[in-house]
Structure formats: C-alpha cells, structure tokens
C-alpha cells in the first residue's frame, strides 16, 4: 500500500486518504455550454505531473499532492493555502 | 529407497522424541523436528502424490515447499504443504488427488487417454452447450483435495508491522545483510521460509558450526527481529510486504528491503523426469543436512555445475553409493570436488529414467560420447536421480517491486540489472554463489539498505562481481519421441505440449502460459517458467538475452484463505438507544453502516402488519423514530450563511435565527445528491442534517470546497455525537410539552421553527419536522443523554409507538416527500424531482447552478410524479417499468400500500408527457402483465 | 489467565473547541495550549508525561480536552463558549475513551491499525488521527507506572464495534512477548 506524506499528519498509508482528482479551476459562469461540459466531463489523462486534491480522512484535512501519473510517484504535498487563488 | 542416516551434526531433528504418522493406512516413523514429507521419506515412502492430470505417481521433487507433490490432507485439513509443515505425532495424512489412495489410485488409467488429451483440449472440446456438464465432470475428477463445509471458522489474526530494513531470506547473504544493517542502527526484520536460519549456506560441505558466531549475534542483537517459517508472499507499493506465517498474516512496512531470496533449482527435462526418486540436488541437500535422510542407497547425479559434485561428495561421505556423476557439459569438476574413484562422465545426454516397482526410478539411461565422435547408450542402475543442472532466481518479488532482471550468459541466470529506490539484492538471486561473495554482497546490501532507511540517497548502479562461473546449463532439455518429459509437474505439461502451443500460434510467454496452463498450478511455475520460456524461445530462434521475464502478480506462493480472511471485521454503527430498540423487538437492517430498526416485531403479526400498525399509530396518535443516523453538521463563523448559499441550491444567508429551511445539495452537473433541513441557531451558527448514507461524503465535500473558497467558517461533524429522534403525530405536541421548557404552541413554535431548550432535563435542539407527519418534532441531544430522552418520550403518553425505517418510508410517501437516491437517480435534477422550489437561480453562485441553466434550456427529461394504483389485483413492485407506445417511459421508484388511505400509492420517474395529473401510466408488472395507474397530486395524505 | 493486554473504558468529561481564537480562549481560562499541531499537553499544572487530564491540538486550530473528576476546566470552557465568541466555536465531543495497556498492548493495536503506534512518539507527545479497522480515532501513547499505555478516542456510535473487537483481540493475546 502506498504511503502518502500528509502535510499535517506525516506519512500515512493510502487507506487513510481519498482523492478528489486534479486541481482544476472552475470556469466562469459566463463560459459557453461547451466549455462547461468539457469542465464537467473531460479529464486530462496524459501521463504528467498533476496537482491533485487529497484528503486525510481521519482528520478531514484536504491538501494538494503533486503526483507523476506515469510513475505514480508523489513528488510533494502541501497545504491548500499554497494554491493562493490559482483555483476557485 | 530413502532412509535415515545416523546422527549428523546440525540436524534439525530431536532423536529423543520419536513420533509416528499414519499415511494412508501405513505407519511412518520420524522425530520431533521432522516435517511431514521428511517422516515419509525417512520411512522409505516414495510415492507421495498422484499428478493432477494423468495421476502418475509422484515423490519428493524440491523438498522446499516449491512443488505441488508434497500437498497433503492432514487430519482432515486439505492442501497442507508437507515439505514444511511440522509432523505431529498421530497425525493422519493422505494424498489429495487420488481415487482410493496413492498406492492404488483407480484414476491412474487416465494416463492411457493422454494421446486424446492434447494441450488446449479443454478450450477446443468444451465450448458450447455441453460445457456445463463437462465442466462438472472434470472438476469432480481433477481438483486438489476436498473442503469440509463443516470446518469451524478460525479467526486468524492479521497484523501490521514496521521496520527499517526487511531482509527476506536468511542464508549467508541475508544473515550478513541483517547484521550489517542492524549494526548501523537499523531496526531489522529477518524472515525465512525455513524453520531455521542458514539457508543453503552449509551445502558446499562447510562444517556445521560455520555460522555459529553469526547465529549467536543475530539472536542476541537488540535491533534484529527474526521470523522463521515465514514466507514473503507479495511486494506492494512503498515497501509493503505480505508475510505469511503458519497462523498469521503480517503486512510489514519497511523503509528498505534486502532480497536475499536465493534461487530455485531447476530440473533437467527428460523422459520420466517425474518419477519418484528423481529430485533436485538441493532437495537431496535439504534431506541430508536438515533431516539426516539419504535420498537413496545408490544414486546418479545429473550435473552441470560444481554444486552437483559437492552433493556427490557429501553423499559419499555419508555412505551413499554414488553410481555416477553424469555431466551435461563438456568438462567436469571432479578433481576440484575431490571425487577420485567416482565415475564421472562428461557430455552426457539423458534419455530416460526407468521405472521399477511402485513406479519409482530403478535406472537412468543416458547417451555418452564414445571414441571417434560416436555416442553410446549406457544404463546406470540407481534408486535416485539427483538433478543439479541449474538455477532460476527467486526474483518474483523483486520484479513486483519494479526491478528489472537481465540474463547473464556467463552465469546462465537472470540477475537484477536495475533496482528501484530502497530495494536491494544480495546472494545467489544476484548471481553471487561462492560463500565469501554471498557474505560480501549481503554486507554491502545491508549497509546500503540501512543508509537508505536513514534517508540517505541511493546510489544508482548495482555493483556485482563480474567473475561469474557458470552455474546453469543453457538448455537442459532432452525431448524424447515417446514424450513424458515433464516441464511442469503440477499440470503434467510435456515438451510437445509447449511446441504444440507455439504451432497453434500461442508463441509469446503470456499466451503460451494461458493456452498450455504452464505455471498455473500450485507451484506457480517455480520449476517450469524458466524451462518453458527456454523451450519457447529456442523454438522461435531466440534466447533469454532478448526477452524480459514476466512479472507474476502476488501471491508468489499460495496463501491459505483464512489468512486473507483474518478476523473478518464488520463495521457497524450503533445509535445511543440501540439496546432500547433491541428490547422492543427491533428487526435490524443496515443503512449507511448503521444498524437501524427496520420495524419492531409484534407477536403473531406479519412484517407488513407490524409496519401498518406503526404507520397507523403515527397517524392516529404519535410515534417515535430514532433518526440518529442522519448526518448532523454545524457551521460556525461570519461566512457560514454565505458558504451555505454557495454550497446548497437554496438561500440561507437570509434565514432568521430560530428558523429552518429545506436544503437540496447538487453536484456540479446539477444532479440532486443530498438533502436535509438547515436550522439557524445564531447569527454565525447553522446546524443542518444530511441523509444517513450521504453524511460522510457531504461533510468531506464541505471541507474540500472550503479548502478552495477559504471562507471564514468552521465545520463540525456531529453525526455520531448527537442522538436524534423524530416525535411525530397529532398528539406529539401534547405529549412532549410536559417534558420541555420550550413553548410548543403553534404561535410560539410554528412549522419551520427551531428552538433550543431542555427536553427531559437534557439540553436539546428541537426543530419542527414535517417529513412523516404534519406535526412533528425532531429532537437532537448529546449521545450520552439519548437513552434518557428516548425513555421519557416513550413514556410521555400511553399511546406512543416506536416506528422503524419501513413505516417511515410509508409515512413520508403518504406525505409526498421523495427520498434522494431512491426517488432520484444519478441523472435527476431538482426540477425533475419536483424540488425546483428549493432552488434559487437568482443567487450569484451555487454548486450546480451553471449546469441547471443548461438543464432548464433543454427541458426536463423525466418527471417525478405521484400515482395511485386503481387495480390492485396485479402485483406491482418498485423498479417496474412504465410503458408508453411500446417504449420504456419511466419506472416506479417508491411504492407502498397506504394503511391511511387503504390503497396503493407510489412515486414514478416518467417521461414529462405522462406527468399530467389524472393521466394514466401503463405499468408492466414483474409477471409481464400491464396494469394502469393514475397520476395523482401529492401529498396523498393531508393535514394529519 | 493473565492476558497480554487489556482494554477498559475511561469515564471523563470531554469538549472540543475550534477556530482561529480557540488558543486565546484556552489561554484566558488558564488551560494549556500545546504549541505544535498534533501534540498534547497536560491540561493544567505540571506538564507531566503521564498526565491524565489533557488538551490535544488537532491540526492548528482545533483542540480536544479530556478531564476526569470534577472537570472544572471543561465546565468553564463550556460556559465560555456558550457566549457565541467569534472565532472560537464549541465542538460537542461525546467520544468514548479507551485505555489499552499490558505488555502486549502494542501487539493488540498492530492488529487494528496501520500506523506504527508501537513506535509512537511519546517524547514529543504526538497525538495521532488515524484509522482503526475503519474507524477514525485519536490515539496517543503515554508512559505510566505499568509501562506504556495507549489512549484511544472514537465517535460513540463506533465504540461498541471498536471496543468489542479490541476486547476479543486482547483476550486472545497470551502474556509474554510476541515471539
């Protein structure tokens, strides 16, 4: 089982986490229907380093992990505050 | 014939404690410390098993628990691994795949059918309509062992463990690695599948005490924990390794792993190489050095490496006659091994082993070079043929860990070429064969592993001694025109089967495996994958040099199911008044992980009657239901109202303190995912419920969205910390008023109100609830006071009736309230569910708003409607379809017979054109008949 | 038969507080405030390793307090938080507290928890938010006269499940070391 280093709780087994997928900006409400539909239903699956939402469930703590989806290696994790408005 | 030798220094048995087994009616004598197979061997019992397909007699092959020949039923427990299971005095042992025992297996005639059972026969013959009957016959015939359905459930512990350095394999390299890593300060776990440490270290004829110093240091070392009789069954991400002990599964998390897993000796492939008495050289070494058992009185050794000569010398030293050492190579190691006087031939090609009485080997026929380039057939009488022709790395866990192995032609073996972070290899698995090399490799790996565990970076290259000697023959395969050269003993696969697979087009390793079943038996190809691959590659004109080894999925070795089952934890949440429900005769159901009363049993009443009685009690007087399972969430802070406005489809920032409002939660696609009642308890304080099954996910989502929005509010999940009861029915107010300081009058506490006060002396939050009845109070109290409040409410009037989930479903249906997830599905938007009134599209933002604009533009695809069933003669059920114009036009989502109305009512999701009140729905019942229902206005039941 | 481990339920009063001004409220009441996230301190008085009454800092802005006996600290905090203080919010903590001890207590926990509690950081008074057979718990290891003991807290609706499984496990563990 994978180990994820939670910024709050330290290294813990994957069992204690859930993911909410890639960190993505929500399009503005005045975007086109096509843009909105793409946001809802299209995900990038090309292997790359992605920023992802992860939650340590026993503490209810959400943070960001940068994961290489080709190697499944988590390169770093940090508190969501560090996103600093790059996502809403 | 195998036999017990006089005492050997270092033997694993205690000769002062004799014991006796019964093997299929015959007595077998052994000693404490013997394994089951050792007792049988020492007693001269050669036939241990019958083969899976042809029922050929089989004997000891690897004596390492690596082959399927040593599987027994012991005292009724099937598939025990006799090579390693300790013998218990008085145990009754049977082979697992016979009809009437190993000696007189009535199924041995099957072998005569062999010509009619070519490889792939099953695939070709048993498709189509006959498959089921053939499958049944074959399964009843083939299987290994039988399972007793009466066997008691044994709670087998599973546990987690943690260490800095895990060392797998306790031979010379593993012991050196463990000591070096521990000396460097690492917490070391050293595991070995054998009962004692040492591995194959002593087989080259070293004295019994050669490792005494190391063994003593290991057992005394405060940083080393040793686990014997333990095999590593699988490697998982980040150095998580499954360790299987006889009675326990341990999942160990290491910071670094040293694989000192050694090698698995590979057989020579020649005719009748499966006869009892034909075994690997290392099997003979195990028998000899651990259990003081000679593999025979007169043995032939097929050799292609120095190990074969060392074996010959060891056996000769213990009085065994070595008939000949027959070397497959052009040269031999006779002089180096000090075997003067023993017949040693080179350039030998085995032709066949010849069976004698009891089907065991009595001679070996070979081709030897003769003068002038001619060759000559010679027959050597013998009662054992020992094969020492090559090794395969025990590297499957390395492959699972992500290592790449490459084939070293000089060595004739695959060795690690590239190791992932924190993974190290030492000893024979890494091509290190001589004792000083093995120990040096172990020390290096141990030091590197300890350094990595401390957090130091890992050096990229794998440093191997480059002076390999050849230990494995490149192609020890000798096909015979009459066949029976077994590549895979588990599945009785012969050379011609593999060649046929190639001819059929299954000419890659993965395809050949599936077509021929090579490597799919209990030993998982430990002795057959390398020879099988070798045969395939040769047939295709290729070699190992240009082929990667396949990685097998875990488990590397069969694991008893009880180990995987563990104790069997079944998570169950209980409310504060669980035992009150039990005392009332609750019939339980599991909802969202909670145990909830489905209904309360009444003497001599059916389930339907019990539910109807509960419904009538609520309608006529008052009832009490435990709704502690509802999600209960608090939001505090200046932004709490604004947050809810963004999160939920409704508006809450303008909700007055002391009031509640229904809230519907959408996902970003505008689909209804949850609902609940939001109460405002203070300017900066809201308290709201979610559905039982949605509680965990909804709370988590609130936290996620606020991790993004970063609004000034704080969240508390009070779900398990508060008990909640819905006290509903026309007389609930009168019954509750004496128990509380809250004024319950309609003027003081109107519908949609929320109050805080004391109920039965307990601080409570009370909201007016209309879910099941026009008048009702939902009372939320701290968990510890739940029983106090429940008891007070139950005693508040003589007519109070506890009701369960089923009655609640009927009651809310009568009141026309849909249940999210039952009356909606993953495509239902709030307008379609009739919840459009709870959506405030004029807000600047809420989750799902953007999608709802598209939904609104497109129009409803379906509509939730209430209906009544006029014709009750046909049995209709939830999920029955609504048919219109020959097409599916909807389905029933809820259905119940209303005791209040004395008729059947329900909800259906239907095409919008059918949704008009008064319209007729054609419902196709489960039995295929059609029945008409009428779309009706909701609620079905008015103000009660 | 003396078992290798035992588990019992701890009776005490508990409360939580969270929000940006939670530390200030604790400070005003003279209650301890652990400096680092996910650590605990003695609730008041000398900050001893074997303290019974504790305050634990869960993450940065949430605190969990357990106090036995009169529980004056919990009562004072409860009264204070009833005043609707901006930035310090009450958290109802109806947790069930368990105490697990005995020479093989760590072996019992190793059957239910994938976090290395045997290697728990006692010196730094770490409190762990972890999963135990599917149940979210708070856990800490503490020295006592009888050796290391483990204190576990869970949501009361899971307590019956967790306690009964731990009881089964501790009853089956024979005394003596694991190997």
| Number of helices, where a helix is a run of at least 4 consecutive DSSP H or I residues of chain C | 4
How many alpha or pi helices of chain B? 22
Which stretches of chain B are low in confidence, meaning pLDDT under 50 for 5 or more residues running? none
Work out the oligomeric state of the chains in this entry.
heterotrimer
Structural class of chain B: alpha+beta
N- and C-termini, Cα separation of chain C: 19 Å
Binned strand content of chain C: 25-35%
Per-chain topology:
The complex is a heterotrimer of chains A (88), B (944) and C (179).
Chain A: E1 3-6, E2 10-13, E3 17-22, H1 33-41, E4 49-56, E5 61-68, E6 73-79
Antiparallel strand pairs in A: 1-2, 3-4, 4-5, 5-6
Chain B: E1 3-4, E2 14-23, E3 26-32, H1 36-42, E4 49-50, E5 57-58, E6 71-74, E7 77-81, E8 92-95, H2 121-125, H3 131-142, E9 158-168, H4 172-183, E10 188-191, H5 212-220, E11 224-227, E12 231-236, E13 240-245, E14 248-259, E15 263-265, E16 278-280, H6 281-291, E17 293-294, E18 298-303, H7 306-317, E19 321-327, H8 334-337, E20 344-345, E21 349-355, E22 361-369, E23 375-381, E24 384-388, E25 391-393, H9 396-400, E26 404-408, E27 413-418, E28 423-425, H10 435-453, E29 486-488, E30 493-494, H11 495-503, H12 509-516, H13 529-539, H14 561-565, H15 578-583, E31 586-591, E32 594-600, H16 607-620, E33 623-626, E34 631-636, H17 640-647, E35 660-666, E36 672-682, E37 685-690, H18 695-709, E38 714-717, E39 722-728, H19 732-736, E40 754-759, E41 762-768, E42 776-782, H20 786-794, E43 801-802, H21 805-814, H22 849-858, E44 863-869, E45 881-884, E46 887-898, E47 903-910, E48 920-924, E49 930-936
Parallel strand pairs in B: 2-8, 9-10, 9-14, 10-11, 14-28, 16-24, 18-19, 18-24, 19-20, 33-43
Antiparallel strand pairs in B: 1-17, 2-3, 4-5, 6-7, 6-8, 12-13, 13-14, 15-25, 21-22, 22-23, 26-27, 29-30, 31-32, 33-39, 34-37, 34-38, 35-36, 36-37, 39-42, 40-41, 41-42, 44-47, 44-49, 45-46, 45-48, 46-47, 48-49
Helix pairs in contact in B: 4-5, 4-10, 6-7, 11-13, 16-21
Chain C: E1 6-10, E2 13-18, H1 22-28, E3 39-42, E4 54-58, E5 62-67, H2 72-81, E6 89-91, E7 96-101, H3 105-110, E8 128-132, E9 135-144, E10 147-154, H4 156-172
Antiparallel strand pairs in C: 1-7, 2-5, 2-6, 3-4, 4-5, 7-10, 8-9, 9-10
């Amino acid at each position: 089982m994978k180990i994820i280093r939670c910024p709050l709780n330290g290294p813990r087994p994957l069992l204690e986490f859930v993911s909410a997928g890639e960190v993505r900006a929500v399009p503005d409400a005045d975007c086109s229907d096509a843009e909105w539909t793409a946001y809802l239903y299209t995900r990038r699956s090309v292997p790359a380093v992605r920023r992802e939402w992860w939650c340590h469930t026993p503490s209810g703590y959400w943070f960001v992990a940068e994961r290489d989806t080709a190697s499944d290696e988590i390169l770093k994790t940090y508190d969501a505050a560090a996103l600093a408005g790059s996502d809403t | 014939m195998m036999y017990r030798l006089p005492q050997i220094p270092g033997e694993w048995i205690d000769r002062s404690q004799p014991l006796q087994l019964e093997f299929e009616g015959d007595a077998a004598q052994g000693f404490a410390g013997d394994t089951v197979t050792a007792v049988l061997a020492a007693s001269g019992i050669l036939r241990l098993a019958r083969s899976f397909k042809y029922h050929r007699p089989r004997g000891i092959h690897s004596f390492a628990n690596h082959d399927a020949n040593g599987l027994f039923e012991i005292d009724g427990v099937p598939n025990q691994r006799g090579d390693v299971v300790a013998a218990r005095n008085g145990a009754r042992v049977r082979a697992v795949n016979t009809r009437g025992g190993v000696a007189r297996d009535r199924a041995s005639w099957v072998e005569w059918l062999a010509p009619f059972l070519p490889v792939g026969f099953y695939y070709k013959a048993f498709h189509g309509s006959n498959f089921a009957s053939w499958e049944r016959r074959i399964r009843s015939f083939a299987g290994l062992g039988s399972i007793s359905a009466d066997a008691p459930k044994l709670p087998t512990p599973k546990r987690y463990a943690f260490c800095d350095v895990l060392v797998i394999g306790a031979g010379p390299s593993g012991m050196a690695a463990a000591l070096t890593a521990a000396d460097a300060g690492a917490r070391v776990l050293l595991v070995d599948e054998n009962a004692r440490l040492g591995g194959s270290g002593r087989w080259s004829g070293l004295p019994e005490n050669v490792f005494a110093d190391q063994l003593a240091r290991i057992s005394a070392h405060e940083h080393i924990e040793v686990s014997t009789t333990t095999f590593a069954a699988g490697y998982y991400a980040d150095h998580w390794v499954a360790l299987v002990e006889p009675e326990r599964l341990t999942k160990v998390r290491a910071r670094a792993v040293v694989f000192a897993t050694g090698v698995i000796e590979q057989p020579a492939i020649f005719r009748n190489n499966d006869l009892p008495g034909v075994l690997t050289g290392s099997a003979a070494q195990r028998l000899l050095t651990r259990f003081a058992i000679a593999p025979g009185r007169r043995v032939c050794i097929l050799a292609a490496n120095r190990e074969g000569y060392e074996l010959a010398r060891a056996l000769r030293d213990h009085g065994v006659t070595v008939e000949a050492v027959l070397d497959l190579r052009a040269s031999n190691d006779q002089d180096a091994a000090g075997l003067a006087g023993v017949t040693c031939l080179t350039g030998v090609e085995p032709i066949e082993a010849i069976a004698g009485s009891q089907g065991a080997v009595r001679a070996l026929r070979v081709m030897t070079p003769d003068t002038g380039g001619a060759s000559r057939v010679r027959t050597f009488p013998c009662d054992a043929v020992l094969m020492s022709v090559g090794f395969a790395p025990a590297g499957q866990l390395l492959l699972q860990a992500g290592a790449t192995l490459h084939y070293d032609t000089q060595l004739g073996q695959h060795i690690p070429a590239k190791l992932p972070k924190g993974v190290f290899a030492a000893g024979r698995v890494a091509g290190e064969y001589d004792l000083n090399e093995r120990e040096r490799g172990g020390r290096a790996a141990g030091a590197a592993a300890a350094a990595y565990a401390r957090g130091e970076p890992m050096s990229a290259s794998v440093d191997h001694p480059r002076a390999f000697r050849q230990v494995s023959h490149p192609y020890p395969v000798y096909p015979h025109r009459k066949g029976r050269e077994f590549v895979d003993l588990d599945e009785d696969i012969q050379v011609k089967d593999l060649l046929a697979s190639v001819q059929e087009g299954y000419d890659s390793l993965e395809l050949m495996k599936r077509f021929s079943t090579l490597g799919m038996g209990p030993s998982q190809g430990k002795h057959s994958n390398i020879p099988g691959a070798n045969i395939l590659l040769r047939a295709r004109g290729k070699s190992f040099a240009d082929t990667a080894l396949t990685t097998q999925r875990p488990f590397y070795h069969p694991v008893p199911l009880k180990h995987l089952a563990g104790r069997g934890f079944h998570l169950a949440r209980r409310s504060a008044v669980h035992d009150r429900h039990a005392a009332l005769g609750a019939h339980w159901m599991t909802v969202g992980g909670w145990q909830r009363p489905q209904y309360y049993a009444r003497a001599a009443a059916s389930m339907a009657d019990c539910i109807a009685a509960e419904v009538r009690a609520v309608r006529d007087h008052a009832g009490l239901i435990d709704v502690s399972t509802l999600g209960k969430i608090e939001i505090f802070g200046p932004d709490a109202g604004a947050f809810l406005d963004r999160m939920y489809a409704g508006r809450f920032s303008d909700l007055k303190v002391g009031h509640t409002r229904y809230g519907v939660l959408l996902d970003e696609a505008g689909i209804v995912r949850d609902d609940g009642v939001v109460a405002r308890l203070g300017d900066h304080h809201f308290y709201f419920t979610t559905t039982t099954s949605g509680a965990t996910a909804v709370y988590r989502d609130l936290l996620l969205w606020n991790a993004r929005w970063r609004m000034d509010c704080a969240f508390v999940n009070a779900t398990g910390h508060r008990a909640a009861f819905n006290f509903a029915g026309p007389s609930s107010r009168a019954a509750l008023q004496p128990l509380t300081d809250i004024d319950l009058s309609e003027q003081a506490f109107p519908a949609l109100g929320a109050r805080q006060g004391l109920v039965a002396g307990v601080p409570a939050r009370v909201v007016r609830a209309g879910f099941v009845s026009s008048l009702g109070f939902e009372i939320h109290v701290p968990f510890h006071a739940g029983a106090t409040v429940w008891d007070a409410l139950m005693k508040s009037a003589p007519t109070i009736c506890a009701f369960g989930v089923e009655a609640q479903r009927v009651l809310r249906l009568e009141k026309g309230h849909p249940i999210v997830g039952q009356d909606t599905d993953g495509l239902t938007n709030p307008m379609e569910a009739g919840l459009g009134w709870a959506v405030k599209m004029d807000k600047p933002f809420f989750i799902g708003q953007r999608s709802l604009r598209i939904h609104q533009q497109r129009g409803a695809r379906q509509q939730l409607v209430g209906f009544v069933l006029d014709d009750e003669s046909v049995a209709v059920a939830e999920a029955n379809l609504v048919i219109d114009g020959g097409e599916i036009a909807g389905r029933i989502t809820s259905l119940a017979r209303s005791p209040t109305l004395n008729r059947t009512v329900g909800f259906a999701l239907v095409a919008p054109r059918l949704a008009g009140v008064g319209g007729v729905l054609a419902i196709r019942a489960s039995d295929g008949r059609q029945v008409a229902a009428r779309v009706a206005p909701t609620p079905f039941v008015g103000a009660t | 038969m003396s078992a290798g481990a035992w588990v019992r339920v701890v009776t005490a009063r508990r409360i939580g507080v969270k929000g940006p001004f939670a530390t200030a409220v604790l400070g005003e009441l003279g209650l301890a405030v652990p400096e680092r996230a996910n650590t605990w301190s003695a609730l008041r008085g000398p900050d001893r390793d074997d303290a019974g009454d504790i305050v634990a800092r869960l993450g940065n802005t949430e605190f969990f307090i357990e106090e036995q006996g009169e529980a004056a600290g919990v009562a004072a905090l409860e009264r204070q938080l009833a005043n609707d203080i901006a930035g310090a919010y009450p958290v109802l903590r109806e947790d069930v507290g368990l105490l697990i001890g005995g020479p093989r207590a760590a072996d019992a926990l190793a059957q239910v928890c994938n976090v290395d509690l045997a290697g728990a950081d006692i010196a730094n008074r770490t409190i762990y938010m972890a999963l135990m057979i599917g149940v979210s718990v708070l856990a800490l290891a503490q020295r006592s006269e009888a050796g290391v003991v483990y204190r576990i807290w869970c949501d009361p609706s899971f307590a019956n499940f967790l306690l009964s499984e731990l009881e089964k496990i501790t009853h089956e563990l024979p005394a003596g070391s694991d190997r």
